[in-house]
Specification:
With 88 residues, this protein is α+β, with helices and mostly antiparallel strands. The protein has helices spanning 19-29, 63-72, and strands at 3-12, 35-45, 48-58, 77-87. The protein has one domain: Alpha-Beta Plaits (2-Layer Sandwich), CATH 3.30.70.
């Protein structure tokens, strides 16, 4: 069993969403065994920004889906998308 690096893009509900608060919630929301490696705010358009979250997790069934659902439940997050995924 190996490890997987995944890059998620979290889209906020609007331009007024505080991404620092969302970033703090990310660290508290990831399931056990998932390590947050980094976060970056990325400009989208017209003042809208997204939060890119890089995580590392074990390559076991269901962990990716569980992590994606946990991130989607964070308040003020409109959507979560897997941008990149690769084995380490």
């Amino acid at each position: 069993m190996g490890q997987v690096a995944v890059l998620f893009r979290l889209m906020p509900q609007g331009v007024e969403t505080d991404l620092a608060t969302v970033a703090k919630a990310v660290k508290e929301s990831v399931p056990a065994g998932v390590t947050v490696r980094g976060m970056q705010v990325k400009d989208i358009a017209y003042g809208l920004k997204s939060l890119l979250v890089s995580v590392v997790m074990d390559d076991t069934g269901g962990v990716l889906d569980t992590t994606e659902h946990a991130l989607a439940k964070i308040p003020h997050v409109e959507s979560v998308e897997v941008m990149e995924e690769g084995l380490l």
